[in-house]
Amino acid sequence: MNKKMQEVLSSYARSFVVAVMTAYAMGDMSVKDLLIAGLIAVAGPAIRAVNPKDPAFGMVADAVEVELNKLAKADKKKKK
Asked: Higher confidence at residue 71 or residue 28?
């Protein structure tokens, strides 16, 4: 699994865990309600994943990563 996919999955997991913990802390002990809260929380990162212009996970992020890699390679060559 590549680094970008790990970042996406960790974003989903964080959102899910925080929502479930919040619902639990509010006294909602129903497993169904806890799962619904977690699934609703995952909607935010899912929307980011669908957006091609999202600076973290969309196409823009891919273009920025390519440019940063080019700059890093050029900098390495300069230092040698």
From this structure: 71
